[in-house]
Design brief:
403 residues, alpha+beta, Rossmann fold, OB fold (Dihydrolipoamide Acetyltransferase, E2P), 6-stranded mixed β-sheet, 35% strand, globular, binds adenosine-5'-triphosphate, binds magnesium ion
Amino acid sequence: MNRAPTNLIPLNRAQPHGAGTNGGQAVRRAPKERILHMEGIQKVYGTSVAVENTTLELFAGEILTLLGPSGCGKTTTLRLAIGLERATKGRIWFKDQLVDAPEDRVFVSPDKRDMGMVFQSYAIWPHMDVFGNVAYPLRVRRRKADEIRQEVEKALDLVGLTGFGNRPGTKLSGGQMQRVAVARGLVFGPDLLLMDEPFSNLDAKLRDQMRSELKLLQRRLGISVLFVTHDQSEALALSDRIAVMQAGRIEQSGDPKELYYYPQTTAVRDFLGRTLNFKGRIMARSHGNSATVELTEGVICEAAGADHTQSSAIHSPCVASIRPEHVKVSPLEGAGIPGSGYLTGNILTLLFIGDRYEASICLKSGMIVTVFLPCDENWAEGQAVKLQLPPDRIQLWKSEAAQ
Ligand SMILES: Nc1ncnc2c1ncn2[C@@H]1O[C@H](COP(=O)(O)OP(=O)(O)OP(=O)(O)O)[C@@H](O)[C@H]1O
Ligand SMILES: [Mg+2]
């Protein structure tokens, strides 16, 4: 999608509920028709449980991302949504229609669910040209030749591939194949587009570009997207809401900022972004959410962020966590003042990554942490630094051993 698509006419679909236009730009309005609803879904293969007790809802015009490590059940959940797999237990509704409910002997086949799918491998048929690939879903739906030609042209235009219709499927770059796959997913005007790690085979720059273009396209068409990735920055950048999956279950779902700033479980905390986790002991509790914690680094600090220790007793072990961008780093003058509430250490490595330095710091205890430093200041490997942890940025967790 190298150039901005000029044809902004939605494909053969009505303007979605909950979306309006404003000077040609799609505007999303609050709530919201429910497009997909999975309730209490379980999928068992032989003796292994791929998806367990999963409930999720996806609303019109939003991008919901399933995020989680390899093998946690993301693809299986997508395949269940579109009907390429049957649930072992639970119920799935597409819009208001029950499409899968084993206990009620209900199953609606994929061709009768109005969903487009973009596979991780793109699944471009090599024996067809670009036109044939994109036209396929329309042919399956027995649309007339004229309509097929028009809709394929519109879809190719939308993904920036105008004039590529005659190009053989084998003579496309990775990015072009990706666009063909998106055009094929969109061409019949589905109510829901399912995308399984669609950008994972692209190089970093193209991946970033495709992400913004997908978001732009999705906003223009007002289409709903169920997106799958194991890449947390992709999920944060692209999604209206994220559901973090772990071992077949959804651990937590919410908007990206909510998940990033207020993770409810250690799995979500550690999967989304980076965290510095310091072991310590709870020394005292004051009113509200604040606690005094002694870190094993020998430093006493206040923690006033979310408290997940469930009010563990005084002297209980705990973990104080903070995002690296919230740590205030400054040069250490002299030896530092004991008991001043900051950690001290030396810069081990300094990686210049364009907009900032990523610095590994070896703390006095030998623990190595990674923090970010502004690159318009002078830093040097070996330099002594102090690390201040703002109380309201520190979250407390039960120590792993105690969990
Ligand atoms: N057809 C199958 N038969 C048996 N087990 C399967 C089948 N499909 C998936 N599984 C298992 O179900 C679990 C979930 O697989 P799934 O493909 O949904 O994971 P995923 O989150 O998409 O992983 P990845 O990020 O690697 O694509 C895995 O343990 C996998 O081995
Ligand atoms: Mg997968």
